[in-house]
């Protein structure tokens, strides 16, 4: 099944893909596995938003999910 | 004073054109920065007199680690805020800390009002009171240029100055520090203006007496590596704080159009990424910082017909992009920079200016004020009209601008609209509509800054919201930040300077403090500030939050008014009890 992914540019330094793209995934694929595949360290992730809602790392994707991976906002 | 057990304070009396230096052993236990500046304010303030009375003091302080360790770059100013009428504290980087260090002053206390517009030249050898009549009325850029041309010491000096807003006593006028940094919030610019003080130039050539160079150098290297070779500070250099725009927008936390919305349809167009692509031309640092977090953006402006263009560079960060961007509905990065430039030249605090203009826009829409008041067609997204209004604020162009030049607290008394005036604790809101932690934190923070206690950080990292935990976080974090800011460590480096690192740095220059000493210091500063606030009549009893903050979703959904009031009550009760215990112990 396919999901839409958006990875914030902040994660570019870890070598994985950033920006908006689509991915083909197997059933049972969760956020943790997605982060591993994209080479994003879990402890650097602030928010995983799926279909406008914040989810945990164990969230299992469904067909057509739109996932957005973001760092925490920082003080300025 | 480096290598000594006293704080060297320069006292300047503008009225009588006199200066005095005192070596204060009794202040040594406050280290410097916010600790020393708060104590000096308490000693010198006149509680019965208005904030801008000539006898009220203005204090600037650095700390024992200033400039000689990486990212220890800030100077801390205290004053009675003309904006809130109570404790005023503001921090700035640039070259000021280095210049004070080289001039040999740990703190400067300025009192009195000069008989005519004056600028001060402060060096390690003398203090000069110079005629600034020809500078009065000049904007920030012009006065900087004139001072640079007249005075010696390029590269080593710090030039701090005010613009028209400060001269006209706008209560949220800032003091510009070395062009790209500011004592931004709470109206220090008006304090300068009230003293007929247009600018200060500080420089010196004093030695830095470090007795154990070997240990100092080793400690410096360790901290330098931590700051530059780990992830601790990388994000401040990369996109800088504007990385927040996309993040906050995705989590319903980006205040937009006077917080009618917490997401912005043009967020991508004013994001840190877009600024980096289109406008970023360089990154610079405060003296003594290896990071380079100050992002300079450039835009092009047509200044005459016939294809006449100029390029203009200004610094930008999250708070500016929020307050002068999303909050005003501005749709492009170029336009945000254009508005920032106007705010810079006038010498205003960007955050309060944006929040005041956002309120005025809605007040005009709702008919609480008219075009005769605003003189400009204020509407979200209309850059040109906002630029006009910024000048009107700085010049206090009419009765309406006179009133809003005293901030939203004053504006709502006259025109109404309290329910959509974005104020927390009397100060205009910062750019994080993340939830209860932020709302409580800015309200109760000593200087009503989001950086007092970083409640926005709690909102983001919490798995679930617990009332006790929120109150506890806000109190503990503020005390800990008092330790960092008494040492003038930039808060961006808080992960670099954990307690063991601070103690090691102090030890390397001969200050043998313990972890308990630091805890005592954070606590003492916290309650000293509260004591000052109480002396000035400050109280959060009967405090009312603006309705708007409950109407617009945050990261945690819509906030519940009752719950936020309950949190405030819990905070007040706990702090009052701790304050009583602390006072008894004094």
TrEMBL record, chain A:
Q: Its domain of life? A: Bacteria
Please report the stretch or stretches of sequence annotated as the Ubiquitin Mut7-C domain. 5-72
Q: What Pfam families is this protein classified in?
A: Ub-Mut7C
Q: Which SUPFAM superfamilies match?
A: MoaD/ThiS (SSF54285)
InterPro entries named in the record: Beta-grasp_dom_sf (IPR012675), Mopterin_synth/thiamin_S_b (IPR016155), Ub_Mut7C (IPR027798)
Query: What is this protein's record name?
Result: Sulfur carrier protein ThiS (Thiamine biosynthesis)
Automatic annotation (TrEMBL), chain B:
Domain Aldehyde ferredoxin oxidoreductase N-terminal residues, every copy:
6-206
Q: Which cofactor does it need?
A: [4Fe-4S] cluster; tungstopterin
Iron as a keyword?
yes
GO molecular function per UniProt: 4 iron, 4 sulfur cluster binding; electron transfer activity; metal ion binding; oxidoreductase activity, acting on the aldehyde or oxo group of donors, iron-sulfur protein as acceptor
Looking up InterPro entries in the UniProt record yields: Ald_Fedxn_OxRdtase_dom2 (IPR013984), Ald_Fedxn_OxRdtase_dom3 (IPR013985), Ald_Fedxn_OxRdtase_N (IPR013983), Ald_Fedxn_OxRdtase_N_sf (IPR036503), OxRdtase_Ald_Fedxn_C (IPR001203), Tungsten_al_ferr_oxy-like_C (IPR036021), W-dependent_AOR (IPR051919)
- SUPFAM superfamilies according to UniProt: Aldehyde ferredoxin oxidoreductase, C-terminal domains, Aldehyde ferredoxin oxidoreductase, N-terminal domain
Q: Which UniProt keywords apply?
A: 4Fe-4S, Iron, Iron-sulfur, Metal-binding, Oxidoreductase
Q: Which family does it belong to?
A: Belongs to the AOR/FOR family.
- Specify the protein name: Aldehyde:ferredoxin oxidoreductase
């Amino acid at each position: 099944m396919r999901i839409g992914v958006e990875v914030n540019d902040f994660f570019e330094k870890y070598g994985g893909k950033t920006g908006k793209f689509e991915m083909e995934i197997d059933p049972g694929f969760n956020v943790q596995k997605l982060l591993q595949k994209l080479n994003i360290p879990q402890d650097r992730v602030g928010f995983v938003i799926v279909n406008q809602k914040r989810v945990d790392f164990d969230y299992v994707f469904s067909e057509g999910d739109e996932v957005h991976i973001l760092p925490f906002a920082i003080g300025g | 004073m480096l290598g000594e057990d006293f704080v060297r304070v320069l006292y300047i009396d503008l009225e009588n054109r006199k200066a005095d230096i005192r070596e204060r052993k009794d202040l040594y236990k406050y280290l410097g920065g916010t600790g020393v500046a708060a104590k000096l304010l308490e000693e010198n303030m006149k509680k019965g007199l208005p904030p801008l009375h000539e006898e009220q003091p203005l204090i600037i302080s650095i700390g024992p680690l200033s400039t000689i360790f990486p990212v220890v770059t800030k100077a801390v100013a205290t004053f009675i805020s003309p904006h809130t009428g109570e404790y005023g504290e503001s921090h700035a980087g640039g070259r000021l800390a280095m210049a004070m260090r080289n001039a040999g002053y740990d703190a400067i206390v300025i009192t009195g009002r000069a008989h005519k517009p004056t600028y001060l030249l402060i060096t390690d050898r003398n203090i000069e009171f110079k005629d600034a009549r020809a500078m009065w009325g000049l904007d920030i850029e012009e006065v900087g240029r004139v001072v640079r041309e007249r005075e010696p010491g390029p590269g080593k000096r710090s030039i701090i100055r005010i613009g028209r807003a400060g001269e006209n006593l706008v209560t949220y006028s800032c003091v510009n520090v070395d062009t790209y940094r500011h004592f931004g919030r709470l109206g220090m610019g008006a304090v300068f203006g009230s003293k007929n003080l247009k600018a200060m130039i500080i420089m010196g050539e004093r030695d830095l007496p470090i007795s154990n160079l070997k240990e100092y150098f080793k400690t410096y290297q360790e901290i330098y590596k931590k700051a530059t070779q780990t992830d601790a500070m990388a994000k401040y250099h990369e996109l800088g704080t504007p990385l927040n725009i996309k993040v906050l927008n995705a989590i319903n936390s980006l205040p937009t159009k006077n917080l009618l919305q917490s997401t912005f349809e043009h967020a991508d167009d004013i994001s840190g990424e877009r600024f980096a692509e289109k406008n970023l031309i360089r990154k610079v640092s405060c003296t003594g910082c290896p990071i380079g977090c100050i992002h300079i953006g450039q835009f092009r402006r047509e200044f005459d017909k016939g294809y006449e263009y100029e390029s203009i560079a200004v610094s930008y960060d999250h708070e500016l992009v929020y307050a002068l961007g999303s909050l005003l509905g501005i749709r492009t990065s170029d336009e945000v920079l254009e508005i920032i430039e106007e705010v810079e030249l006038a010498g205003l605090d960007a955050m309060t200016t944006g929040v005041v203009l956002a309120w005025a826009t809605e007040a005009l829409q709702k008919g609480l004020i008219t075009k005769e008041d605003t003189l400009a067609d204020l509407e979200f997204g209309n850059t040109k009209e906002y630029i006009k209004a910024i000048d009107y604020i700085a010049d206090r162009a009419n009765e309406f601008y006179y009133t809003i030049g005293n901030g939203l607290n004053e504006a709502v008394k006259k025109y109404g609209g309290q329910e959509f005036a974005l104020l927390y604790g009397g100060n205009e809101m910062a750019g994080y509509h993340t939830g209860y932690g932020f709302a409580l934190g800015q309200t109760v923070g000593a200087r009503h800054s989001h950086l007092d206690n970083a409640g926005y950080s709690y909102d983001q990292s919490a798995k679930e919201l617990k009332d006790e935990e929120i109150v506890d976080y806000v109190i503990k974090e503020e005390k800990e930040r008092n330790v960092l800011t008494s040492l003038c460590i930039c808060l961006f480096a808080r992960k670099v300077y954990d307690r063991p690192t601070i103690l090691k740095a102090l030890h390397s220059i001969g200050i043998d403090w313990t972890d308990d000493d630091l805890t005592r210091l954070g606590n003492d500063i916290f309650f000293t500030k509260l004591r000052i606030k109480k002396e000035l009549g400050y109280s959060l009893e009967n405090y009312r939050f603006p309705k708007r903050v409950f109407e617009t979703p945050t990261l945690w959904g819509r906030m519940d008014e009752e719950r936020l009031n309950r949190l405030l009550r819990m905070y007040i009760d706990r702090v009052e009890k701790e304050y009583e215990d602390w006072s008894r112990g004094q």
